[in-house]
């Protein structure tokens, strides 16, 4: 019983380093005080996401773009539900947009969109990477 308590104490003190044969957030490499080795675990995948409709805007000669970002940039406007989901730090955040058919793009949120029907308004250059512009809209999952 005492060995088990010691094992748990070592596990807690080691910050979930592979102690007592348990492996968690670290893998072998640099030495720890217990003679084990540790490296940080791989960067976790995005844990927050929302699903909804993406549309497009900002096509040179067709529609208005944000003045600081050229039409060919991978930029987007966050609509009401996306801004609410991300919170106050949404502007400038880079998000993944997954068309749920095998294509994921990364865009920076540089503008806002007042729509409550759509989730994200992509620049035409970004939208065309996940669906033809002629569709106008596409179902997506946005994660960060």
Q: How would you describe the overall organization of this protein?
A:
By secondary structure, the protein is an alpha+beta fold. The chain has two domains: 2-40, no CATH class; 49-143, Barwin-like endoglucanases. It has helices spanning 2-13, 80-86, 124-127, and strands at 26-31, 37-40, 49-57, 75-79, 94-98, 104-113, 120-123, 137-143. The strands form two sheets. It has a six-stranded mixed β-barrel with strand order 3-7-4-6-5-8. It has a two-stranded antiparallel sheet with strand order 1-2. Strand 1 and strand 2 (37-40) form a beta hairpin. It is globular, with a radius of gyration of 22 Å.
Rg measurement, Å: 22 Å
Number of individual domains: 2
Mind telling me the CATH class of the largest domain? Mainly Beta
What is the oligomeric state here?
A: single chain
User: How many beta-strand runs?
Assistant: 8
Taking all residues together, what is the mean pLDDT? 79
Biggest sheet layout: 6 strands, mixed, barrel
- Structural category: alpha+beta
CATH architecture of the largest domain: Beta Barrel
CATH topology of the largest domain: Barwin-like endoglucanases
